[in-house]
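re: ur msg from earlier - yeah i can do the adenosine-5'-diphosphate complex, just paste it... oh wait u already did. ok heres what im feeding in:
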Amino acid sequence: MALSRLPLPPGCCASSGRERPACGLLSPLRYQLNFPDCGPACTSRALLALTVPLETLQVVKGRMMQDMRKGLCRQTHTQACMRMLPTFICSMPDGTGYRLCFSAEKGSFLVVELCQNYVRTLLVTLLGDGNRNPEVIYKIFDMPEDIVRGTGEALFDFIAQCVKQFLAGVDISQDRLPLGFVFPFSCRQTKLDKAELISWSKGFCCSDVEGKDVVELLQVAINKQEVYNVEVVALLNDTVGTMMSCSTRDKACEVALILGSGTNCCFMAEAREVEMVEETSGRMCVNTEWGLFGDDGALSDILTPYDVRLDQETFNPGERRFEKLVGGVYLGEIVRHVLMALAVEKALFIGSNVTILRTKDVISTQQVLDIIDHEEGMDAARRTLETLGLGPSERDCCRVQQLCRAVVSRAAALCGTGLAAILTHMCQAREMEQMAVNVGVDGVLYQGHTRVGEILRSVTGLLAPECTATLLPSPDGTGLGAAIVTAVALRLASQRCQVDQVLAPLRLSRADLERVQALMRQEMELGLGQETHANASVRMLPTYVCGTPDGSEKGEFLALDLGGTNFRVLAVHVGKDGIRMASDIYIIPTIIMQGTGEALFDHIIECIMDFQQKQDLVGQTLPLGFTFSFPCQQLGLDKAVLLNWTKGFNATGCVGKDVVQMLREAAQRKEHSGLKVVAVVNDTVGTMMSCGYDDPKCEIGLIVGTGTNACYMEEMQNVGTVEGEQGRMCINMEWGAFGDNGCLDDIITNFDRLVDEKTINAGKQRFEKLISGMYLGEIVRHILLALVSKQLLFRGKPCPQLETKDIFKTKFLSTIECDGLGLQQVQTILQDLELQASFEDSLLVREVCKTVSLRAAQLCAAGLAAVVEKMRENRGLDKLSVTVGVDGTLYKLHPCFSQNVQQVLQDLAPNCNVTFLLSEDGSGKGAALVAAVASRGVEL
Ligand code: ADP
Ligand code: MG
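and the outut:
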């Protein structure tokens, strides 16, 4: 058979075709070629084929680095061979050790390690001394061979039986035993205790496990054994366990290598490179799954015919190419294929029956390792070959030893190449010129022979000269590491539990929402009733707007908009071709908002005069619509008595007075004569009217901005506070005050109480204070403070900045909750508040924001559900189709608020088909539209 060298890959500096001893520099690789008696040419060719020159290794290293980068990148990660799986084991942004590696962990932990042909159970007791002197008891259970190819159920049942037997033999009096599961296969892990098996390897192929959560499978099997105190809390890869156990508090281990039956490597990547996870600061351990490297052909130029044949006999041909060159399970098989080929060529075992070599697995990796030993190796070779009935000669034994060395050396050299790729990658990602790291190593192949370590070290040194790697053999790596991770998982679980306790009162059940809906409905009825009206928390104020626009409105109007964030004056043209507007924004200084009523209205007139001047409207008397977004008892379209101020306004001498009258009086004081106020409109009504101009089905107005409120078209016969039974009238609900009579007290939390206490209208607008923009940031701020004080956030460090009222803006919620933008945004916002947020901190802050904004949306939906259901019943319909005109920055800009409102409303009022229409400048347009009809002398 032809065993010529495969051509070198392009870009490789060695001249092609020249046969020469591999890498002259690389003494550990050369020794196998210096053998004085190389025998027939085919034996040397075999040896040469198994020897990879340094130049080629360099190329392999480059390809591996490329594949790693692909695997880390969000766009290309599905095309990479190496999976680069995030493990959720992180280190501090300042680089001081693992966040998970807490020195205070204490207690007993069970570890189960699934290995090639056995299961190991350990009981590890951590004493809280920084894991210096853990007590470890363990037991090994041999696994029947057929289990690895049987059903998944049988495998997990077996593991669970091992656990049960082990526990029967140890003295342990802990009620609850947390278990860490070391599962050395590639899993898609989403949490420490949730991991779906992606695919089996290393000879395992149990049915019905791939794609399933192996933590759950193990827990179910354990429960079946009635070992009820054992709880699987963490799953980890063997590499991660090794890395953890080789780390001490003073000396972090940042890479771990497994060179056992299979091979794999994990390392601490810069969090920002791990694009599959939103962590951006610090480092996260990435499980490379490098056994898969080469599945795209990247190793094809070093594969020998023996490797190809071995691969074809496996259950996963074409897969895990790197592992099949390096992993222990395969080395015996590679040797068998080499011997078989040479025997066929009559280069070995001349005269013997060699058919035995056709049988799989007749040469074990252990035998190969024994054969390469300097002193006893020849004896081992003879014994092995004789047992196989191959009748070896002295020379056969010699050659077999050389071949075994070539196979093992190649494995070690490739492993060293992989390690060099990892180290160079880390060094580049950290932007360092030189780097020193500790590398934890475990696995029979590494520990079974010193030569393996020597080759590995020297190849790594040659290929990554900028890095100094200290190899640390892991003492009982995986087991101890797993116990540490388990301990930490437990701590995290208990923290989770405490966080849930803090947030529980803000999480409303469906029953809670139904109750809010029913209460709103009840308050609505009370507000509408003539006798009950005075004591209702939802005032249900008549607006004297009795219809929505029909599109025939025309004319020029002035409009005022007071009660939002800005005070505006508008000139509105309503024509056949639609509506055109010009407007100006005027500031109302706090001193005027909270000064005297006269000053406030004088200021408003001055603004109007300024506007008229700028717009060339001086001398014209245009009908004026006044959007006045405060609760008013309206006595006519142009007569509105202020009931109370909200949203930060508090001008004296206004409550109980007609706002139109106050405006007219101010005009007189300012000698402004061209003012014709025809309508006072609430912003909800304006919003409904402006959307109604485009959509005749719009019969509800909703505001969720600084405050929140709603209006809708009610049957006149239900409006007990206004004479007349015909038609409908728009009712300004003033629902922000819902709950002011105490009816919402059991859903109002302590955080809400703290927010309320510090407002200028404490005890008032309770519903609004759960929903609107003026308050959500404050609620979040109080929750964050509580979490800090319980040591659940920012490591419990006091946050003086966070004590400042209104420092946490509601618009932050929008940014923080925007999933696409990443946690970087959260960290930036928090940094501006002088808060150093870790990955977990950022996630927790996001969770708090989501909880608060979801509750706001749910409550808003419960209120709307009461409205639409009442409208449906009023009209005696099975199904109501209606549109809600909406305004308000919170509703419009928050990434999930509107969607949450719509979803919950659909759920609470399934018989109503509700469409939401965003209002564009409802206050201005709406006021003009109300004025348009009013000035025509036709009441709407
Ligand atoms: P108003 O209700 O006063 O007419 P807006 O509808 O513009 O005014 O609402 C202003 C409120 O919206 C502010 O109280 C602020 O808290 C909130 N807000 C501003 N920007 C955002 C944002 N990006 N996401 C969520 N809320 C915001
Ligand atoms: Mg507004």
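cool cool. Residues 1-38, 92-103 have pLDDT under 50 and may be disordered. ping me if u need the other ligands too
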